[in-house]
Design brief:
It comes from Massilia forsythiae. This protein is mainly alpha-helical and 132 residues long. Helix content is 62%, strand content 0%. The chain starts with 14 loop residues before the first helix and ends with a helix.
């Protein structure tokens, strides 16, 4: 099987980029004797269970192509999705962190003020009791 083509990271390949077009395939060697066309299968009123019908064959081909394209794209899709999520969440997280830091700073300021006020009050009470 041929090596998968390298695609631009920002693009998703189309089917013609993944599959080799019929016109690009090498022509059969002209010097080689022409092969006899395959013998037509005997006409049967219904297809056997082991032979897929025309619609089933097309459906199976479609499923294989979809699976093949998805396999090739899966890593790229995951990376692109992760980059987009990070890019969209970064400003939101920056805002949340800034707000949280501001609230923590205000809470810490209030706590320090209360502790200092209590310590000063206790020290003044201690000094008053010593002077009497």
């Amino acid at each position: 099987m041929s090596e998968p083509a390298a695609f631009d990271e920002s693009s998703i390949p189309v089917l013609t980029e993944v599959m080799e077009p019929e016109a690009d395939r090498p022509a059969p060697d002209a010097a080689a004797p022409a092969a006899a066309p395959p013998a037509a299968p005997p006409a049967t009123p219904h297809a056997t269970p082991t032979e897929p019908s025309g619609d089933e064959a097309w459906q199976a081909l479609e499923e294989r192509l979809v699976a093949r394209v998805l396999d090739r794209l899966q890593d790229r899709i995951e990376l692109t999705l992760e980059d987009q999520v990070r890019g969209n969440l970064a400003p939101l997280l920056d805002h949340v962190v800034a707000r949280l830091a501001s609230e923590l700073r205000a809470g810490l300021q209030q706590t320090v003020e209360q502790v200092v006020a209590r310590a000063v009050a206790q020290e003044l009470a201690h000094l008053k009791s010593r002077s009497h």
